[in-house]
Amino acid sequence: MIPGVYELILWIPALCIPPVAVFYDAKKNDKNPYLWSIAILAGLTMNYLVGLVLVVVYLVYRTDNSVSDNEMDMREEFLNLLDPNERKVVECLLNHGEMNQSEIAKRTNLSHATVSRILTNLESKNIVTRHRDGMQKVVRLREEIMSKLQ
Question: Which of 83, 102, 114, 119 is the most buried (most CB within 10 A)?
Answer without folding.
Answer: 119
